[in-house]
Fold this sequence. Notes:
The chain is α+β, with helices and mostly antiparallel strands. It folds into two domains: 2-58, no CATH class; 76-171, Alpha-Beta Plaits (2-Layer Sandwich), CATH 3.30.70. Helices cover 33% and strands 32% of the residues. The protein has helices spanning 2-10, 41-58, 91-101, 145-163, and strands at residues 14-23, 26-34, 76-86, 105-114, 133-142, 166-171. It has a four-stranded antiparallel β-sheet, covered by helices on one side. A two-stranded antiparallel sheet has the order 1-2. Strand 1 (14-23) and strand 2 (26-34) form a beta hairpin. The longest helix is centred in the last third of the chain and has 19 residues, at 145-163. It starts with a helix and ends with a strand.
Amino acid sequence: MAAFTRTVLGQGGTLGGSRAQTVSGTACISAVVFLPEAASVNGAISKITGLNWALQTSLQDYHVSIRPAKESQPPQIFARVTVSAADQMGILARIADHLGSRSIQFSTMRAQTDASRYGADGIEGTDDDEPPLYNAVFELSSSNLDEDLKWIEHEIYELGAQMDVVVKYELTQK
């Protein structure tokens, strides 16, 4: 984090906010960086390119990705979706893949496995067993809600049909 911050400051930038986390030994730094105003589009591109090169040079063991910000309203959470299915391991990955392939944004996502379905005896492998029930709950967000609302609802129900799962779609606003 120190090398990242020094590099940004060395390029004349300031941090508007940052977050660092490590998951299974993989470190990730996400940040909003403000660069000085440029006189032209070419000047702005030059500043971004310079920051990208400086970060790649100082953080050689990391993958660096820079995306210029677009000016728009921040995404608003508008719906909660619950997906439930028995015997559907990997449900989060499948949902994330489906939503990502359609550029649908989600704000939060969590999963739960109900393993109590092993039967009254609580022992796996007996005749009264049922497969565990997998649940995923996620909240959807959009920067352009008026255009996206019906289309996203259709895509969520398509997800249910493709995965053969139960989908509950509920609007939280609008």
